[in-house]
Amino acid sequence: MASIVKTFHLGGDLEIARLGYGAMRIVGKGVWGEPADREAMKAVLRRAVELGVNFIDTADSYGPTISEELIGQALAPYKPGVVIATKSGLARTGPDVWVPLGRPEYLVQQVELSLRRLKLQQIDLWQLHRIDPKVPVEESLGAIKKLQEQGKIRHVGLSEVSVEQIKQARKVIEIVSVQNLYNIADRKSEAVLEYCHNEGLAFIPWFPVAAGKLTQPGGKLDVFAQRHGITLSQLSIAWLLHRSPVILPIPGTSSIPHLEENMKAADVQLSEAEWREVEAIAGQR
Q: Which of 21, 62, 78, 195 is the catalytic position?
């Protein structure tokens, strides 16, 4: 059986379990407003930590503010070893509306507010949610570097970037992670993953569970998963864990049963031949 590396040293010093939790789904529809049941969402967060999750990813724009508030209320004071990642750089004006905003003074303000909501003295991993085309990235990250020097941010990452943008950012500040859309059915970020793999940077795929034509019920991937007694979600997540030791999947859910199902993906064991079969099926899109 092909063994999966279970942990990753984020930034070289924070050892985390590679299967984390993304906290985008614990707010209202359209990633906007309150969830139907705040206490139920707090229970999901606490259950994630009980199951061994020690890497939780959120953003100030989820809600906005509500995801961070729920994490702070549910988990602070944090269990030793729990790493919280958040993001700033997308403003919200309504459901499913996301506007890049990378002005230095805005980012500084948002970091201070994130610290307050998350009940932290230092953000373990702060990520620039999007590069603002109206603001030079040197200005956006220059302000963040000052906050890092003040001890308010430990490590810095990027989201939805190209290899060239990563290289540009690394001239300003040390970058330890990249968060791009990536899953077995959508591999447009393959070059970015390869760069992260070679450079030892964490690659955090958002939307880690594949969707679309490739993953339809009764399709070849679904049949493969059923044959091995696992769900399509578990296969999608396990594939990411197998794909590269720098990949940190963060599947999100507002359901404890679904959370428990996702976490079992770390235990999926397939042979190299079976993974090649999965790759062959995926290549038939």
A: 62
